[in-house]
């Protein structure tokens, strides 16, 4: 469940904070909070932001310590936070580490409708933990009060940028809200998509989906699991597996999760069945092992045999791509002015 940012600003730990940009963003929903500090800006940006990952409707806390005097880097960070779905940045220790908030930063945040919040300046006694505790507590209390979440999640998904409104993002939002793991399989039983809670969960998904299930909620030791069909135009298209550890699944929870996935597929899943090598390469680069294996099987590509990646900057991307396809045994795809090739 989410809480509007304007409501969070009333919390004791945020009452003295000032909104200096992106005031219209106060109506946005917040579902989590995280801390962003780093020592090597280039490495962090490449690892964290260059993978089209969606991090949810988060508030981010930072002091910009390592870029405290670099306004250009600060603006770049704001742009990247906005790109991955963050809704606000809370700046700490302004006047202590970061001398001041530059006007360029404020102007950019306003243009992006990205809320920029500054904690009381020149105040060293501030603690990240106070805001983190109260924000998380407010979100959890909202979840306990409002148990019907399907409509809100669908609204959240509909407001995503086009490049982030995909099935992977939808499943991540849904698993974060329900703290459940989700697996989608095709009619032959092959795993199509999977997102686990937590992300590093070591559940053997291939084994779990083989457990007997007839649409009821089944319990296997500390694991609760059920499967539901996903329909399109009256035909079963996919199987949805929902699993939860150490806490029982309820029929109400399962029905709402199924509703979110089904409505998403009906509204935005029309290109779901289209398969291309570019999607496979993206899965490899993002280390999405389940998706990678599924696409590789469909395309008949032995991913384990890939040993080298080439990035070639082409003056004429279209002509070079055609030449590569004609004269090479490599599979490739183009993006921007670069051609990416994996050799086997």
UniProtKB/TrEMBL annotation:
InterPro entries cross-referenced by the UniProt entry: CdaR-like_regulators, PucR_dom
Signal sequence coordinates: none
Domain Purine catabolism PurC-like, residue spans: 7-139
PANTHER family, per the entry: CARBOHYDRATE DIACID REGULATOR
Name of the protein in its database record: Purine catabolism PurC-like domain-containing protein
Organism: Listeria fleischmannii FSL S10-1203
Lineage, broadest ranks: Bacteria, Bacillati, Bacillota, Bacilli, Bacillales
